[in-house]
């Protein structure tokens, strides 16, 4: 809990450090990431929240009209970029290199916050190019802050508002 209070002060964002929020599905990763993005906006910072799938669609679509560099430049002007759900993505062969271009351009300039319910080892499998994804992970790990919520329970399936039949099902 103390770590979250320290993150609320946004020193990591002001220092352009990546923040990786990892944990099981339903444990509050997106909630934490969006709250920190909202807090950054309240502090006068420029922040944007986008799912990885939508980000990749946007970058891929920019290939058609040759505006990829414009899209990437737009993201480099942010103080914080929250990329949600780096887990189960419908991928295309171009996605890993487009994501690498974005992460490289933002490195040490923008606080990149990523949420994921899968292990780093599976990122390459999910996105389709393990060597490029390893390079992305290496850049994200550099000076990164880390929140791990592995032992948590799914609030949607096991929380107080979950349907009673779901509360008895254990989510792995």
Structural commentary:
The protein has 172 residues and is α/β, with parallel strands linked by helices. It is built from ten helices and five strands, in the order H-H-E-H-E-H-H-E-H-E-H-H-E-H-H. The chain has a five-stranded parallel sheet with strand order 2-3-4-1-5. The radius of gyration is 16 Å and the shape is globular.
In short, what is this structure?
This protein is 51% helix and 15% strand. The protein has helices at 2-8, 11-14, 29-42, 52-64, 68-76, 95-106, 120-127, 130-141, 155-158, 164-167, and strands at residues 19-23, 47-51, 80-84, 111-116, 145-149.
Distance between the termini: 24 Å
Tell me the CATH architecture. Answer: 3-Layer(aba) Sandwich
User: What general form does the structure show?
Assistant: globular
- Rg value: 16 Å
H/E series: HHEHEHHEHEHHEHH
Low-confidence stretches: none
Name of the CATH first level = Alpha Beta
| Strand proportion | 15-25%
- What class do helices, strands and sheet pairing give? alpha/beta
Q: In the residues, how many domains can be counted? A: 1
Mean pLDDT: 90
Strand order of the largest sheet: 2-3-4-1-5
Count of strand segments: 5
CATH topology: Rossmann fold
Largest sheet: 5 strands, parallel
The CATH superfamily appears as: P-loop containing nucleotide triphosphate hydrolases
Number of helical segments?
10
